[in-house]
Amino acid sequence: MNDLRNLISALASFMEANWLPYEDSIGSINYCINGGTISKENLISEYSSVMFDKNFDWISLATESQLLISPESYSNEDIKNYVKFLLQDYLFPERRLTEQEIEELNLSVENVLKANSSINEWMLAYDVFEELKKHQQYKQLEYYNLWKLPFVKKRIIQKYIEGKDREIGYLKYNENPT
């Protein structure tokens, strides 16, 4: 993993053990880029190459970068999606969803939850994602975008999977948001 030096350094800024706010972690990456310890060009290249490598060992990357406290609790796909959430919009801001697109996604997730679960039933976020992908509008949607949904005081509530605080987990429609 020596050839992923920039990516490992960038992910270390998001160490779960440090519990830094996202903006502070991005600030740390920017500081390293400005100081010359991370090359943004190489970071983009390294990130892109691992995203397209179907056999990449995301658990090893999370271990080496100390991204997660217990990376073995997650699947390779879980970690890949989490890394996308952390870095995709930062590295490729032109691909970021607009506020309107996020609001439309939020409404679509509400509709999926209403249609596919009873009042007291939770739905796994990956299952919600698969339901969304059935609609033409979301054929190109990537899972990491679900992390952008505003779960606070909205009609969608979230419950983490035990031992996986860095995964969306379960979602449920909330009839009575506060």
Written overview of the protein:
Helix 1 packs across helix 3. The protein has a 3-stranded antiparallel β-sheet. The longest helix is centred in the middle third of the chain and has 18 residues. The termini are far apart. With 178 residues, it is mostly helical. It folds into 2 domains: 94 residues, no CATH class; 75 residues. Helix content is 48%, strand content 6%. It is globular.
Question: What are the SSEs and their pairings?
Answer:
Layout: H1 5-12, H2 22-35, H3 40-51, H4 58-65, H5 76-91, H6 99-116, E1 123-124, H7 125-133, E2 156-159, E3 170-173
Antiparallel strand pairs: 1-3, 2-3
Helix pairs in contact: 1-3, 1-4, 6-7
**Biggest sheet layout:** 3 strands, antiparallel
Distance between the termini: 46 Å
Strand line-up of the largest beta sheet? 1-3-2
* SSE string, helices as H and strands as E: HHHHHHEHEE
What share of the residues lie within helices? 40-55%
Mean pLDDT, nearest integer? Answer: 91
Total domain modules: 2
Q: Any low-confidence stretches, pLDDT <50, length ≥5?
A: none
In short:
By secondary structure, the chain is mainly α. The chain has helices at residues 5-12, 22-35, 40-51, 58-65, 76-91, 99-116, 125-133, and strands at 123-124, 156-159, 170-173.
